[in-house]
Amino acid sequence: MKKAYKILAAALIAMFILCIPAAAAQKTADNQNDIVRIKGDIYVNDGTTVNGDAVTIKGNIYINGSVTGDVVAVFGDVIVNGEVMGDVTTVSGEIKLGPNGKILGDRVQAFGGPLGGNNNFGFRTIPPIWPGAWSGVGNTVFSLVSALVLFLLSALVYLIIPQKVTDMADAIDNNIGRRIGIGFLTLICSPIVVIVLTILLAITVIGIIVIPFLWIAYLIAGLVAITPVYVYIGGKAGELISKRKITGYSALAAGLLSVWLIKRIIELGSSNMGWISAIISLLVLALGFGTLLDYIFTRRRAGSNHNDSSGHRPEGGSREASNGDSHGEDFSGNGSSSQDAQDSNNESIEHKDN
């Protein structure tokens, strides 16, 4: 239970960090040492020197003065119109050099791309409007509520078919690449099939009534498909954090929370990185459909083999029956021999008495 509380606490802390409005974490640097900010911009104004490093996560760094160390922005831009004596690094951001900017060290731009916003090298000093700053909080809350609804629906699936979900989750490690391939083919073909069926059913009155149930069944199949994937991810997360595999509803919750945190961090990092979040969702869905189909076909093959083997049992049974009959004859024969021996012994005893 203590491990579960630690995981929950870490998740709540991460959620709190993601929900901090940008305006609450901004910093205008005076002459000082290292600066580290989480979800906020850093301003090094003209005439100001930072004797160390400047680091921000989910924010931009505006340098109009000087920084003696390195400058790092994760999910943000670095705009240099002053002097940086060390290296400048951005992750999911862009390095922008102004007319008076100097970077004496190396420039490293990972997953770079313009993030938009203010590109004025005179630097803005007015914090953003509060409603805009809090817009990220609303998106985070909506995303969290959606994840909670998905957990409740997945938990219902697990409640109905717990053993099947567990079996599918345990089998994901086997031929995972093949399962993903089957899943992507299913994602490409299944919507086409459902749309064609919808058009065909729309021709008749009864078909029109069936169409909503067809789409509901399609959505339920998707829900059943992704549930074991989240259980699988949660089990792996439990092994990584607590060195033991968690199962059941705990694994389901841990898997959903892990995927939600990764996707949310990427979405908050940059609007240009939203495609990564979409790819993660597609991978989960593809792996789920591939695992579900593989499980269904494997069960059918096993059932077919069982029926074939049971079809030969009568021959074995008749063979055993014939063996039983022969044994019965032997036993009856042995019985008659024993009876003859007993009669001869009785006759010899009577002869001695006489």
What features would you describe in this structure?
This protein is α/β, with parallel strands linked by helices and 354 residues long. The protein folds into 2 domains: 26-132, no CATH class; 135-307, no CATH class. It is 63% helix and 12% strand. The chain contains 9 helices and 14 strands.
List its traits.
354 residues, 2 domains, 5-stranded parallel sheet, disordered N terminus
In a few lines, what is going on in this structure?
The chain is of the alpha/beta class and 354 residues long.
Give the helices and strands as they follow along the chain: HEEEEEEEEEEEEEEHHHHHHHH
Overall form: elongated
Distance between the termini: 93 Å
Please estimate the helix content. 55-70%
| Sequence of strands across the biggest β-sheet | 1-3-6-9-12
Radius of gyration over C-alpha positions, nearest whole angstrom: 36 Å
Class from helix and strand fractions: alpha/beta
Task: Please specify the SSE layout and strand pairing.
Elements lengths: L1 H18 L7 E3 L5 E4 L3 E3 L4 E2 L3 E4 L3 E3 L2 E2 L3 E4 L3 E3 L2 E2 L3 E4 L3 E3 L4 E2 L3 E4 L19 H4 L1 H26 L1 H10 L4 H26 L3 H38 L5 H22 L4 H38 L1 H41 L1
Parallel strand pairs: 1-3, 2-5, 3-6, 4-7, 5-8, 6-9, 7-10, 8-11, 9-12, 10-13, 11-14
Helix pairs in contact: 1-7, 3-4, 3-6, 3-7, 4-6, 5-6, 5-8, 6-7, 6-8, 7-8
